[in-house]
UniProtKB/TrEMBL annotation:
<dbReference type="InterPro" id="IPR036754">
    <property type="entry name" value="YbaK/aa-tRNA-synt-asso_dom_sf"/>
</dbReference>
<feature type="domain" description="YbaK/aminoacyl-tRNA synthetase-associated">
    <location>
        <begin position="40"/>
        <end position="156"/>
    </location>
</feature>
<dbReference type="InterPro" id="IPR004369">
    <property type="entry name" value="Prolyl-tRNA_editing_YbaK/EbsC"/>
</dbReference>
<comment type="similarity">
    <text>Belongs to the prolyl-tRNA editing family. YbaK/EbsC subfamily.</text>
</comment>
<dbReference type="Pfam" id="PF04073">
    <property type="entry name" value="tRNA_edit"/>
</dbReference>
<keyword id="KW-0648">Protein biosynthesis</keyword>
<keyword id="KW-0456">Lyase</keyword>
<protein>
    <recommendedName>
        <fullName>Cys-tRNA(Pro)/Cys-tRNA(Cys) deacylase</fullName>
        <ecNumber>4.2.-.-</ecNumber>
    </recommendedName>
</protein>
<dbReference type="InterPro" id="IPR007214">
    <property type="entry name" value="YbaK/aa-tRNA-synth-assoc-dom"/>
</dbReference>
Amino acid sequence: MAKKTKEKKTNEERILDQHQIAYTENTFDWIKQGAGALNEAKAQGVEPKSILKTIVLQANKDPKDYVVICLPLEYEIDLKVSARELGKKQLHLADNKKLINITGYIHGANTPIGISARKGFPIYFDERIKGLEEISVSAGKVGRSVRLKQVDLVRLVKGSYIKVTK
């Protein structure tokens, strides 16, 4: 009989454990499955609006001025609105090819948990998630997420809520 092996915890899960924050692991791969991942999430009892993507932005073309905005997968970000909210002249998506050097993560694995702990970039959340009790964010590995209380995550990463669209 084959032995079922449990995946090793990610560093982000260890950070949550260190801070005694309760979470559950989920797997759905938005990068490979797109909207199909939302159906998979629904089948697991996870509301799609509660699954957040982590967007890394560069402010004012300054190579040292990065911000992170987390918002539901199905929403888009308005860079002009977000820049105005943050008091920045302009915001641009960080270069995907350089993400590993900027955040320590590849595209699809960026997580506010690790970026906050390792890089100290300011973390912002779409104000529309305020009413959600639980949210899911990447666990630092493509296709792997952690689900936790929204207030616990915001407190852990010292996050703030902003308006990201009109």
